[in-house]
Fold this sequence. Notes:
Shape: elongated
CATH superfamily of the largest domain: Winged helix-like DNA-binding domain superfamily/Winged helix DNA-binding domain
CATH architecture of the largest domain: Orthogonal Bundle
Strand content: under 5%
Number of helices: 9
Order of helices and strands: HHHHHHHHH
Amino acid sequence: MDPREKALIERVLAGDTAAFEPLVLPYRRPMLSLAYRIVPDAEDAKEIVQEALLRAYKYLRRCDIERSFRNWLYQILVNAARDHGRKHGREASLRSDDALTESSPSPEAGPEAAHEAREARAQLLDCLDGVSPKEREVFLLRDIEEMDVAATAEALGLSQLSVRVHLSRARRKIKSRMKEKYPHFFGSGR
């Protein structure tokens, strides 16, 4: 764990509740972005992030300071999203039509390259509708949030083998949908 995060956690646990804000502040936008990819609308995503942050505060004593705080937060977030879906009687669905799902173009990229990158990412996320909820979670954490296999497994409470299996299935299904919906990405020879 980052020494700064460890110090902030120790401060919160010692009674300095104001230390919680700087601890979670760097993760709020990434958490909102991930929640929005999992649930149907922005208001639900905000509610899930709020619930995840409340749970993180409540159960901060359970956080293993030898492990990644980010992964622990994401695990809480995914569980909050699952609970929200059960509570509202609907399966989580992916949204790809908002600025939260757009990739950040590199500063060197021109406007056309940036537009193409955003369009490609939106099309990729559009193809997630054919994967199971578990495959979606694994794909989002592993390939979109760029967590490694071990961190993804920890965040989702799965074995590393299970993460690899779900990721392989998700990638195969997404590639198939991409070929159907956006064949121009695969050239004319395939």
